[in-house]
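pinned: reference chain
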Amino acid sequence: MKRSAGRSAALPVRILYPLGSPLPKAARAALLYWALVALLRRVLYLHALVAAVVGVALVAAPRPLLSALGQPPYPDYAWVRLAGVGAFTVALLAVLVGHRADELWWWSWAFVAGSAGTAAVLTLHAAFGLPPGAAAWSWWVAAVAAWGLAAGLLWGLARAGVERPVV
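pinned: its structure tokens
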């Protein structure tokens, strides 16, 4: 006697409609939802790519990277390397959430909070906290990029949340 390992997942059903005929409302809503989740997934993967590249660069070569960005030498680069490890870890988590974005799209709020918090710190530091001899352009570029990632995530979440609430 064969025993089942549990309830099998329902396979998607494909229904073909004649060309030119309007799709039923439920089919249009499903297509729209999957398109919006695909958008959110792309933004999460972009966030992961940026975080991974920055994280690896900060861990591998913090001194040359920061001097190329016009920053004065630091007495100790361990904190910069720790920030790189954190950025790489966030990238891994963004990929994990991106893989399951259709079910767990609301987990992306954590990345919005992290990106917006990072953008706020970068903006305030560029505006008010630069040490003497530090170039401001690199801080402003990083702030604009962080605000862009936060806005992209927020936009994707807003679009996906309209179609499927958390509950």
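why pinned: The chain has a mean pLDDT of 85. The longest helix spans residues 25-60.
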